Amino acid sequence: KVEHIEKFAEIAAQGEQWQWARSYYEYLVELNQVNEFNANLPEPMANEDGTITTVEPRPEPAAPERPAVQTVDQVLAPYQRKIDKLCGIKFKGINISLSETNQNGLSALKSALELAKEFNVEEQFFPINFNAETCKGVEVLELLNETEFKQFGLDFILARKAFFS
Cβ distance 5 to 76 under 8 Å? Predict the structure, then answer.
């Protein structure tokens, strides 16, 4: 389902900023510890053998780099082609996915219609319910007559061709 994907993308963008904030907080805690340690270094001491022992200061930690705040479109960009395929074409108010399953379903209906015509029972063929894969799951698209069926088939095939070109 693609229904709520924009909200999830917004949450993902916010989550990335929260992860950075947590990393930055951890950095500040570590920096404070390093600064405190370095501020309280013991004086160099002479050993019995005449060598001097010094405590080296700890290096400061590197601050985490803050990621750019992403828009919903930026978060979804790597997935946009798949989303477009799932959203497909709108026909009779339903977004029909440009899936192979829908293409095969249309082919099966075309063959069934040809068979109905061969036996002169095409008037019994329509209306017919097409179980279509959509971005919301499976939805029923009612096709009332042959003209509507052909228009849907043409729209679908042209959109699928354009998508894969």
Answer: yes
